[in-house]
Amino acid sequence: MTSSEKLQASGGDESQAAPAAARFSPVVASAAEPPFTPYHAKYFAYELTRKVGADQADKLARSLCNATVDLNPHQVDAALFAFRSPLSRGAILADEVGLGKTIEAGLIESQLWAEKKRRLLVIVPASLRKQWSLELAEKFFIPSLILESKNYRELARKASSPFDQPNQVVICSYQFARAKAAEIMAVPWDLVVIDEAHRLRNVYKKDNKIARALRDALRSRPKVLLTATPLQNSLMELFGLVSFVDEHVFGSEDAFRELYAKKSDTLSAGMLANLRARIAPICQRTLRKQVTEYVRYTRRIPITQDFTPSGEEQRLYDQVSEYLQRDNLHALPNSQRQLIELVLRKILASSSFAIAATLGTMIDRLRKLERAAKQDADEHLSDLVGDDYEQAESEEDEWKESAPDDGQPAAEATAEDEAAARLLQSLRAEAEELTHYKTLAESIRENAKGEALIRALRLGFAKAVELGAKPKALIFTESRRTQAYLLRLLEANGYAGKLVLFNGTNTDPESKRVYREWLDRHAGHECVSGSPTADMRSALIEEFEHRADIMIATESAAEGVNLQFCSLVVNYDLPWNPQRIEQRIGRCHRYGQRHDVVVINFVNRANEADQRVFELLNEKFKLFDGVFGASDEVLGALESGIDFEKIGRAHV
User: What is the DSSP letter of 491?
Assistant: First the structure.
């Protein structure tokens, strides 16, 4: 049978197949009989056209066919960028908050899945594991396995490597990945996705054990890092994040420090352009203002609200400030003294309730020193402020990087070298003084900052209703004790039954009630993951969306939480990292938000810590903007009062 007869028998059209067969003429020219029919030639030609280059949109054809998600051009571009970059090393996708980096990573994984490259690992904060699993299943129809200690032991009895799952995406936490780094290293991953990758930014520091363990385990594997904030405090963090992907982009740490980091405050436009050019092949960033042609992003209206403390609050601030300015203090460890002072001032600015409890911790320390001349060389910030200030550990790490290195050792505690009798006398006198401050703090039952919040909420909610938005507010504080104070304050001012708390533990009775009711409502549904931490987060978010008007949150709610149903964000306490503020605002000001988002930042200009934090925020945000750019203001103008009518007129 001739080729023509074979084609006719198969129902094909010889005239249509001829051009396709011609493509294979070099292959078949020397053959007496073509190795395949014109029909098959047409089929193979079609298959070859599907094997497109990494820089072509058709590269994602298979994954786009399967995805059930409202895709935007910048997300497709980001996925193609990752394929264009040398994936033997990896890429950083650094779109601004709320632009859909998870979707971009899902596109990449979906394409690899379609190409039968299915050894895929996703490393995320523990609280985001279930969210990733659901998104992969619902939007890309990709099965996944959340690997943790319990099921790891069960799988280990059945297979040599529980991580080697060729037909499921493996999802695990940072901590679990570090603990199993040796096993992760042994798997020939087709791709590793790392979410909230700014946690790796200090990988160049020897004491950052998690980041260094992951870097070493994944050194030879293709990686995609996701973060909206690749630079937060120092240009050295950018060096760390890029070196996690490719250690050769910037060369040595010393060379980068000498060229960029030492003079980051005075980098010329030319040097900034040089830095941007060096990271361009490895880092892709899309700004909200770049996608307005096809994505409707609402306006962000940020203002910074000043307030005046009461006479008693000012007296407490003045007395504690004077105490902190002394050279020798037994209640404070000598190591990182400047950091501790700033954090104490921030706690003082948060609320009288927060500083009262911290003063109690300091008094307890003095009592211990009385009993046994305890050395403080190995003490840390968290030892002093306890679990009230959730960011203590991370801010201690940030401080170590951003603090200037003057080559001088920490100030020596001369009082502890004195005679035992004089030491005891000094310890007791300091404890008595702190007891006086604590008593004063406990006597202050109303905070001017809290009263200003009540007024701001009333005005904000009225404006929200006028604009057609739901009267909902997300309030951020850095102190759990201030969180408890705000709960009492708002309950007493008409918001009882309309509040929900969100922090690192969520062990309060109300949160437990919300969790139990959520489990009852969703019994037997896929949204119940079985992980108490993940399910508690889901329960609290659902409570805020459907029943509560106000969520009072600590920094725990600043990552991986989607709250676009809320359009009022209040930074009751300001962190000194501008990208944390950006992360907070991004919970509400993101894709899917239908209303303008008002952001209120509280600052007491009479408080040195508030003033210094405000200055640091401006300096650091200018540095970030110089390297990566930004679409919106973070702080806004400093105002003496909140005039929502004025805001509305100014942003029309």
Answer: I
